[in-house]
Design a protein that fits this description.
Blueprint: H1 6-14, E1 15-17, E2 22-25, E3 28-32, H2 37-45, E4 56-59, H3 75-91, E5 94-96, H4 106-112, E6 121-124, E7 138-141, H5 144-153, E8 155-158, E9 162-169, H6 178-189, E10 197-202, H7 204-208, H8 211-220, E11 228-230, H9 235-241, H10 250-260, E12 273-278, E13 285-287, E14 295-297, H11 312-324, E15 339-342, H12 350-360, E16 370-373, H13 378-386, H14 389-396, E17 398-400, E18 421-424, E19 439-442, H15 445-454, E20 463-465, E21 471-473
Parallel strand pairs: 3-4, 3-6, 4-5, 6-7, 9-10, 9-12, 10-11, 15-16, 15-18, 16-17, 18-19
Antiparallel strand pairs: 1-2, 2-8, 13-14, 20-21
Helix pairs in contact: 2-5, 6-8, 12-14, 12-15
Bound molecules: 3-isopropylmalic acid and iron/sulfur cluster.
Length: about 475
């Protein structure tokens, strides 16, 4: 039999038709309040039902207020929430609504409820659906008409994408995380570098990563234009999933694991494209521009656009510096921020909160900074509170919130003011993303915590620990 990649195996297993347009069976359809209303309206218009409500799950996350839960931003937002509730009731779909104990960001709750498992095809009307690929599933974002199609038929016509391997070898330096790696990858291959491809991450650095770190990696590969990201399941994947609510149990679990173990790229299978990254060369990253590829390491400086390739690179860098109000050659650690946001489907899981709390313990947020930490789900919130992380954040001067997308998309009351500069653990730094004229710098949770204390970017690796466990910052 011919040698296949992980992607080929999952794709083939779900193929229903192999004509020009290939038709895939969809194992899991996730839904949120922003992109589903139109799709349900269309369904109603056509007099159709949801084909597999048992494979469809919904949550409210984007417009949800993380302070007072009922402080919904505007009439449109209120309508979206009400519509989601009504649609789920009418079509028999499980909804983790605003106050449900399982509520959270869609890409956080899928894995933590065990809905996301290896080998599944998973779709959602949301670009960061790629997150679920960390479990060896084929997971990607879809548009509104595709949502209708999946609701009505549980299938999706697709053109087969190409494959790309990003091989990350070597060991990560302390306090360097998969967020730094993915920012570096996007800098290297560009915001279009993955276009038309499903990326499989391999290499010793990926093997060493926790499931949460892997999710961050897959979450952001979409910012390099890729269709999806995938990582072959291994013992860590099985350990993460065992006992989760919707994960198989008993004999079914044993059978599932045996099948999941076959989900890896065969030794002689080839990819259409391969990129190699050395993990040990990577430092904590900070973006300076208005797309995720415009970034550099914490030891670096804001580039001089004139030093970049003439043409598009120069033009976009010039426009970005103007919007970001940054001068060429400014040292990254000389950039001061007004706000710090720790949250989003990229970096709001328990390990993200733990590392940020570890950096923060015993310190105070700078008096010039407003800081906000938003767990990705109620499960994470409760877990963090059990561990006392909330107290570390609160004592340091952070606001401790209810779960939701919060300041990531600027679609709920958590917004930055015009001109404000934010160190953010989210995934997009586009113009206006976190509020009109707001300026976003993407960083890891550890970097965000250290920046909150100093008031400007700082290399979190300068945070050292005394033997008695007390903090001793060496800056
Ligand atoms: C609202 C939704 C369509 C959007 C997406 O698809 O990514 C949002 O989640 C985002 O991150 O910008
Ligand atoms: S946290 Fe941000 S990136 Fe993730 S789904 Fe919500 S808005 Fe999109």
């Amino acid at each position: 039999m011919s040698q296949q990649t992980l992607f080929d195996k999952v794709w083939e297993k779900h193929l229903i038709e192999m004509e020009e347009q290939q038709l895939l069976f969809i194992d899991l359809h996730l839904i949120h309040e922003v992109t589903s209303p139109q799709a349900f309206s269309k369904l109603r218009e056509e007099g159709r039902l949801v084909r597999r409500p048992d494979l469809t799950f919904a949550t409210a996350d984007h417009i949800v207020p993380t302070g007072e839960r009922d402080n919904i931003r505007d009439i449109l937002a209120k309508k979206q929430i009400d519509f989601l509730t009504k649609n789920c009731e009418e079509f028999g779909i499980t909804l983790y609504d605003i106050d449900h104990p399982d509520n959270g960001i869609v890409h956080i709750i899928g894995p933590e409820l065990g809905l996301t498992t290896p080998g599944k095809t998973i779709v959602c009307g949301d670009s960061h659906t790629s997150t679920h690929g960390a479990f060896g599933s084929l997971a990607f974002g879809i548009g509104s008409s595709e949502i209708t199609h999946v609701l009505a038929t549980q299938t999706l016509p697709q053109k087969k994408p190409k494959t790309m391997n990003i091989h990350i070898d070597g060991q990560l330096k302390d306090y360097v995380t998969s967020k730094d790696i993915i920012l570096k990858i996007i800098q290297e291959i560009g915001t279009n570098g993955g276009a038309g491809h499903v990326v499989e991450f391999t290499g010793s650095a990926v093997d060493d990563m926790s499931m949460e770190q892997r999710m961050t990696l897959c979450n952001m590969i979409i910012e390099a234009g890729a269709r999806a990201g995938m990582i072959a399941p291994d013992e860590k994947t099985f350990e993460y999933l065992e006992g989760k609510r919707f994960a198989p149990r008993g004999e079914a679990w044993e059978e599932a694991v045996a099948e999941w173990k076959t989900l890896k790229t065969d030794p002689d299978a080839s990819y259409d494209k391969t990129v190699v990254i050395h993990a040990y060369e990577i430092s904590p990253q900070v973006t300076w521009g208005t797309n995720p590829s415009q970034g550099t390491s914490i030891e670096g400086v804001v580039p001089d656009p004139n030093d970049l390739n003439k043409g598009a690179d120069q033009d976009t860098a010039k426009a970005a510096l103007k919007y970001m109000d940054l001068k060429p050659l400014t040292k990254i650690d000389d950039i001061y921020v007004d706000k710090v946001f720790i949250g989003s489907c990229t970096n709001s899981r328990i390990e993200d909160l733990r590392v940020a709390a570890e950096v923060l313990r015993g310190y105070q947020v700078s008096s010039k900074v407003e800081a906000l930490v938003v767990p990705g789900s109620y499960h994470i919130k409760r877990r963090a509170e059990e561990e006392g992380l909330d107290q570390i954040f609160i004592n340091a001067g952070f606001d401790w919130r209810e779960p939701g997308c919060s300041m990531c998309p600027g679609m709920n009351p958590d917004m930055a003011k015009p001109g404000e500069r934010i160190a953010s653990t989210s995934n997009r730094n586009f113009e206006g993303r976190q509020g009109k004229e707001a300026r976003t710098h993407l960083v890891s949770p550890a970097m965000a915590a250290a920046t909150a204390v100093k008031g400007h970017f700082i290399d979190v690796r300068d945070w050292t620990f005394k033997e008695d466990g007390e903090k001793n910052a060496t800056f």
